[in-house]
């Protein structure tokens, strides 16, 4: 059996898109683990499965690099949005995800001519049980020091709906990754706080409308960017007052996006806007159980245009750190 795949990225967060009409036809965890290995065409951060939906134009499932399944993926959803909109010749659509049916839309480019899409990020909850997370019988953690985690970082826990722990940090915690790596490894191993693990982001506010975010993703490790994490970080930054409500530009090691944060009397509307870049079209042969072989790999020329955005990002970041 030959399968058609697309290698895509949103902010350098790289995925394979695979469409199937039969969600039970394969062990997707094993396929994702195989696809994401570095030595296999440079690897990826996950597999995005596109399947039929009764609630939207398609359903997206997110399989992390370690084979675990996530409830949502913001960067991935932008790429799936482009795939579905182009396939159906529409400029907006509803896409079913594990916990919500979300609106996606084609947008004007945020940089040069780079294909750009927006995605709704929802549902949002600050209740620790929604992550899940537990800490001293607390109901929420909003802008609090947690002695067990750090003595100079304030943390907020939020699900969008995948779980995020967001720390507002000083530049030294960005230039040196060691603290974030240790904390993230602890929270994504056997631990008393986050039984299912958590995506951990360190945020440095650059100005009132701009933040820098680096994320250690659950099931993956450090990534160039995590869309839900950037959106959750923009939300947290506006709540704690280090960024204004409205449009927040979020820089990260993989580029930049815009996150729209709207507060409706304590209920938040979140939208993530950024690139949806298609790197390659591929054909994969299924040989036998857990064995696959590449049949063909055809690169597109889209990555060249994205590299100019990276150069712009690197200049911005170099001026700060
Ligand atoms: N990179 C994604 C999030 C992918 C899932 C995450 N690793 C998790 O397990 O929650 C994004 O762009 O949001």
TrEMBL record:
Record's keyword annotation contains tRNA processing: no
Molecular function terms from GO: diaminopimelate epimerase activity
PROSITE patterns, A to Z: DAP_EPIMERASE (PS01326)
Catalysed conversion reaction: (2S,6S)-2,6-diaminopimelate = meso-2,6-diaminopimelate
InterPro entries: DAP_epimerase_AS, DAP_epimerase_DapF
Record key words, sorted: Amino-acid biosynthesis, Cytoplasm, Isomerase, Lysine biosynthesis
Main subcellular localisation: cytoplasm
Annotated substrate binding sites: 13, 64, 74-75, 162, 199, 217-218, 227-228
Site note Could be important to modulate the pK values of the two catalytic cysteine residues, residues: 164, 217
Keyword Lyase applies: no
UniProt pathway annotation: Amino-acid biosynthesis; L-lysine biosynthesis via DAP pathway; DL-2,6-diaminopimelate from LL-2,6-diaminopimelate: step 1/1
Localization in the cell: Cytoplasm
The protein's Enzyme Commission number: 5.1.1.7
Highest taxon, organism lineage: Bacteria
Active-site residues, record numbering mapped to chain: 73 (proton donor), 73, 226 (proton acceptor)
SUPFAM superfamilies referenced in this protein's UniProt entry, alphabetically: Diaminopimelate epimerase-like
Binding partners and assembly: Homodimer.
Main function: Catalyzes the stereoinversion of LL-2,6-diaminopimelate (L,L-DAP) to meso-diaminopimelate (meso-DAP), a precursor of L-lysine and an essential component of the bacterial peptidoglycan.
Family: Belongs to the diaminopimelate epimerase family.
Database matches in PANTHER family: DIAMINOPIMELATE EPIMERASE, DIAMINOPIMELATE EPIMERASE, CHLOROPLASTIC
Protein name: Diaminopimelate epimerase
Organism: Viridibacillus soli
Gene: dapF
């Amino acid at each position: 059996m030959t399968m058609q795949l697309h290698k895509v990225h949103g902010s350098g967060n790289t995925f394979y898109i695979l469409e199937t009409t039969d969600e039970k036809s394969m062990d997707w965890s094993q396929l994702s683990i195989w696809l994401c290995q570095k030595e296999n065409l440079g690897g990826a951060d996950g597999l995005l499965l596109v399947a039929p939906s009764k609630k939207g134009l398609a359903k997206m499932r997110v399989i992390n690099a370690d084979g675990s399944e996530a409830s949502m993926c913001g960067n991935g959803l932008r790429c799936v949005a482009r795939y579905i909109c182009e396939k159906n010749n529409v400029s907006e659509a509803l896409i079913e995800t594990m916990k919500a049916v979300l609106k996606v839309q084609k947008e004007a480019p945020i940089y040069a001519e780079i294909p750009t899409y927006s995605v709704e990020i929802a549902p949002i909850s600050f209740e620790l049980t929604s992550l899940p997370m537990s800490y001293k019988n607390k109901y929420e953690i909003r802008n609090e020091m947690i002695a067990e985690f750090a003595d100079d970082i304030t943390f907020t826990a939020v699900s969008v709906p995948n779980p995020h722990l967001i720390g507002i940090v000083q530049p030294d915690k960005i230039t040196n990754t060691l603290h974030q790596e240790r904390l993230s490894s602890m929270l994504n191993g056997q631990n008393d706080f986050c039984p299912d693990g958590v995506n951990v982001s360190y945020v440095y506010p650059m100005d009132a409308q701009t933040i820098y975010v680096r994320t250690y993703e659950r099931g993956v490790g450090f990534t160039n960017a995590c869309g839900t994490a950037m959106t959750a970080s923009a939300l947290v930054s506006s709540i704690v007052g280090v960024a204004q409500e409205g449009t927040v530009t979020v820089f990260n090691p993989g580029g930049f996006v815009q996150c729209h944060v709207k507060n409706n009397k304590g209920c938040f509307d979140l939208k993530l806007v950024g690139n949806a870049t298609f790197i390659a079209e591929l054909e994969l042969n299924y040989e036998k159980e857990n064995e696959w072989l590449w049949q063909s790999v055809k690169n597109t020329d889209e990555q060249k245009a994205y590299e100019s955005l990276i150069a712009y990002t690197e200049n911005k970041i170099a001026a700060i750190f």
